[in-house]
């Protein structure tokens, strides 16, 4: 095989690897990669056994596993045991910032023809300035979403999110009132008095309006800040607890989707898939210092849905297209000839017994062949 | 163009194969797209019952990869035949727990190949699985649709 595979052209934006002369740096470089997506950690989280993954990676993995195990060591884990790993996020960021200058430093000393200036002062100054530009360093702080703390990653969609986000920020401040408590199950914040009823109902997502009684201060603030007058829904920036998908009715699922202003079209499987994916995206977005805006998350969900649909359709088209070529048809006959024969016999026997109409036969054979 | 997670992951794997090469006895035959890859697998050494034989392993990746495992079968055509092995059916389907319930998203295309290679290497007797004919007669095209029962812990 040639070394310049055409498919690899689209990986050109990848940062260059460390030279083999620095195996210790290569190891360090690997240690900030998620073992599932093989990319640098995004919103790293740790599970019970101590292994760390991107929040989205491990949440999606757990959502498809029947018995939930750590992908690396097969220890039994639960989604509830996922914890944010702030230290790893900090290390990952620091490493990303330092990587470029380390690459420069790790290059073998260039020959005299290159006339490269001495690396120390140059790379040091350039790296520190670029680091400052890229990522304003923040000292110890809790995760908050005030606009001046939006990182460089999210600056590109700042413009159109400010309007909807400002309200959510308001939300974050409001719910830190003294007379509120955290639900021990889903850690949603609400008036302490309403927690027992909330648990009784199976931890439905808390809507601000319902849990308001007793929180007069917040109510008044809402009136004065005009927040209450807008029609936009208040979205609680708290982890969503998964509903019981077996018991949930399409209406329940639509309610959840409505809560986050998501499309509610489709049958129950489609709704369920959307709720599942949204919960993964939403919850993993809470595991990072640089959360994306809700509108960016919605766009991501939509894009994923579209690409899944396209892949599905392409697969079907391909299968049909394959049948048109002689080879493909021959293969299909070879693969499913025996099955076809068996079904044919079965149907003929049944036909003899029941003498049913030809229409019914077609339908049943189509189902079974699939 | 924004690449899907599965394509990005596959490209990283491909790049790794290009730069570091494949382990002995495993060779990438075809990876023209991000959907179907074919590896050639042979068991090295004199101990093996498959001495001198080469098999073609086909990996078909779905959009859910690596959360979802790929379809893995041995090619069965004019050039390549699936190995005679107690866990490999004559239509190329493989009964291995990592290609089912024991799949882990940290596994890669290469690690699948290595597992299959070691499964072949540990084989002492060339034979088809019990019930091969019955299975092959009614097997779905996609091995993922088969409900496997894993009996042998040695694989």
TrEMBL record, chain A:
Keyword DNA damage tagged: yes
Biological process, per Gene Ontology: DNA damage tolerance; DNA repair; protein monoubiquitination
GO CC terms, sorted: nucleus; Rad6-Rad18 complex
Region (Disordered): 102-180
Catalysis performed (reactions): S-ubiquitinyl-[E2 ubiquitin-conjugating enzyme]-L-cysteine + [acceptor protein]-L-lysine = [E2 ubiquitin-conjugating enzyme]-L-cysteine + N(6)-ubiquitinyl-[acceptor protein]-L-lysine
Signal peptide: none
Pfam families linked to this entry: zf-C3HC4
Residue ranges with Acidic residues bias: 165-180
Entry-linked SUPFAM superfamilies: RING/U-box (SSF57850)
E.C. code: 2.3.2.27
GO molecular function: single-stranded DNA binding; ubiquitin protein ligase activity; zinc ion binding
Location of the protein in the cell: Nucleus
Keyword terms: DNA damage, DNA repair, DNA-binding, Metal-binding, Nucleus, Transferase, Ubl conjugation pathway, Zinc, Zinc-finger
Basic and acidic residues compositional bias, start-end: 153-162
Family recorded in the similarity comment: Belongs to the RAD18 family.
Name listed for the protein in its UniProt record: Postreplication repair E3 ubiquitin-protein ligase RAD18
Protein species of origin: Kockovaella imperatae
UniProtKB/TrEMBL annotation, chain B:
Domain UBC core residue range list: 5-155
Statement: the UniProt record of this protein carries the keyword Transcription regulation: no
SMART domains reported for this sequence: UBCc (SM00212)
UniProt xrefs under PROSITE patterns: UBC_2
SUPFAM superfamilies named in the record: UBC-like
InterPro entries linked to this entry: Ub_conjugating_enzyme, UBC, UBQ-conjugating_enzyme/RWD
Pfam families referenced in this protein's UniProt entry, alphabetically: UQ_con (PF00179)
Keywords noted in UniProt: Ubl conjugation pathway
Name assigned to this protein: Ubiquitin-conjugating enzyme/RWD-like protein
Source taxonomy: Eukaryota, Fungi, Dikarya, Basidiomycota, Agaricomycotina
């Amino acid at each position: 095989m040639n070394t310049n595979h055409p498919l690899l052209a689209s990986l050109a934006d990848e940062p260059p690897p460390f030279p083999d002369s620095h195996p210790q740096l290569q190891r360090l470089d690997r240690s900030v990669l998620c073992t599932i997506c093989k990319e640098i950690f995004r919103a790293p989280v740790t599970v019970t056994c101590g292994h760390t993954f991107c929040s989205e990676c491990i949440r999606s993995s757990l959502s498809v596993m029947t018995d939930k195990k750590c992908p690396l060591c097969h220890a039994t884990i639960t989604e509830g045991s996922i914890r944010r790993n702030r230290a790893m996020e900090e290390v990952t960021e620091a490493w990303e910032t330092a990587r470029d200058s380390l690459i420069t430093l790790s290059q073998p000393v260039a020959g005299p023809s290159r006339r490269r200036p001495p690396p120390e002062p140059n790379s040091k100054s350039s790296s520190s300035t670029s680091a400052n530009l890229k990522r304003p360093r923040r000292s110890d702080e809790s995760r908050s979403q005030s606009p001046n703390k939006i990182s460089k990653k999210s600056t590109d969609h700042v413009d159109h999110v400010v309007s909807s986000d400002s309200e959510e920020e308001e939300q974050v401040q409001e719910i830190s009132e003294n007379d509120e408590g955290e639900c021990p199950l889903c850690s949603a914040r609400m008036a302490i008095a309403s927690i027992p009823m909330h648990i009784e109902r199976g931890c439905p997502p808390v809507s601000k309006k319902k849990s308001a009684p007793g929180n007069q201060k917040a109510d008044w603030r809402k009136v004065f800040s005009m927040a209450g007058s807008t029609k936009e829904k208040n979205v609680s920036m708290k982890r969503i607890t998964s509903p019981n998908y077996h018991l949930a009715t399409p209406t329940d699922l639509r309610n959840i989707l409505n809560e986050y202003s998501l499309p509610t079209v489709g049958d129950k499987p489609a709704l369920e898939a959307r709720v599942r994916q949204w919960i993964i995206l939403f919850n993993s977005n809470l595991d990072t210092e640089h959360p994306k805006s809700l509108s960016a998350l919605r766009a991501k969900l939509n894009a994923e849905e579209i690409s899944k649909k396209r892949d599905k359709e392409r697969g079907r088209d391909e299968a049909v297209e394959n049948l048109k070529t002689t080879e493909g048809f021959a293969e299909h006959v070879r693969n499913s000839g025996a099955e076809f024969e068996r079904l044919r016999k079965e149907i003929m026997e049944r036909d003899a017994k029941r003498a049913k109409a030809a229409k019914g036969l077609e339908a049943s054979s189509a189902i079974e062949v699939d | 163009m924004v690449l899907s997670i599965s394509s990005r992951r596959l490209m990283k794997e491909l790049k790794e194969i290009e730069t570091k090469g494949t382990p002995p006895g495993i060779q990438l035959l075809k990876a023209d797209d991000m959907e179907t890859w074919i590896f050639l697998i042979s068991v090295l050494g004199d101990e093996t019952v498959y001495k001198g034989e080469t098999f073609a392993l086909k990996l078909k990746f779905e959009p859910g990869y690596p959360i979802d495992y790929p379809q893995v079968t041995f090619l069965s055509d004019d050039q390549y035949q699936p190995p005679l092995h107690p866990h490999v059916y004559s239509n190329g389907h493989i009964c291995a727990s990592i290609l089912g319930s024991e799949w882990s998203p940290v596994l890669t295309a290469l690690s699948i190949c290595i597992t299959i290679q070691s499964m072949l290497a540990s084989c002492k007797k060339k034979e088809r699985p019990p019930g091969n004919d019955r299975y092959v007669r009614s097997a779905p095209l996609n091995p993922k649709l088969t409900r496997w029962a894993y009996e042998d812990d040695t694989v």
